[in-house]
Amino acid sequence: MANVVLFHSALGLRPGVHAAADLLRGAGHAVHTPDYFDGEVFDDLDAGLVKRDMLGYPEIMRRGLAAVEDLPAALVVAGFSLGTGPAETVALGRPGVRAAVLLHGALPVGEFGAEERWPAGVPVQVHWAARDPWVDAGEVADLRADVERAGAAFDSFTYPGDGHLFTDPDLAEHDEAATAALWERVLAFLARVDGSENQRAR
User: Fold this and answer.
1) Domain range list for the chain
2) Where does 106-175 have alpha helices with state H?
3) Minimal CB count within 10 Å: which of 69, 92, 150, 196?
């Protein structure tokens, strides 16, 4: 079992985030879904971005770190879009993180401070739509370099289309087939991280 903290996107802690958490729990993992938007939930991205800008990135990252203070040290950090920022912040700022799953976004380590280094041996998976205008493939490549420089595995997966939050079943951009493929890969990754894959092979 992995302990997973799953950070929401700029749309807030929507039902789709809870559905993702339930899927992971169904596979035997403990999942925590912090709300760093003060309970506000949005259907419109522009409204969510207003909330993001009102809080500011430093406050969002601070809230991400605060959300894990009482959680076990051996966490898997995960996030949707904007939530990848707090996820990476926790990976960089809190010892014991075991892996990171970044959905619909990723930033190179330099975005979090010139002196930051990806923690040694912490593997990463990144998932995004191939034509997503919100994801910069160059930044994903830079993060790959950061992670591999730290001696860790880095896997990135792209999916058809341009839907940003295509994993959210309540949004028009939802892609059922891509979502199913994504979660299959995430679950296999978590099984490797927590060792259950090796245990089943014995």
Assistant:
1) 3-192
2) 137-149
3) 69
- What are the pLDDT digits (tens) for 75-86? 999 999 999 999
Average pLDDT of 184-191? 97
Could you tell me the fold of the domain covering 3-192?
Rossmann fold (3.40.50)
Evaluate whether 128 touches 143 at the Cβ level (below 8 Å).
Answer: no
**Residue 200: which pLDDT band, with cuts at 50, 70 and 90?**
very low
What tokens were used for 71? 């959680």
Give the chain's length. Answer: 202
Q: Which of 112, 109, 100 is nearest to 139 (CA)?
A: 109
Give the model confidence (pLDDT) of 128-168 as tens digits: 999 999 999 999 999 999 999 999 999 999 999 999 999 99
Q: Give the C-alpha separation, 120 to 81, whole Å.
A: 24
| Strand boundaries in 150-189, DSSP class E | 154-159
Burial of 134 (0-12, 13-18, 19+ CB in 10 A): middle
Integer Cα distance of 44 and 49 in angstroms = 9
Phi-psi region of 118 (alpha: psi -120 to 50; beta: other; left: phi over 0): beta
Q: Using the structure block, give the residue that is written with the tokens 């998976």.
A: 125
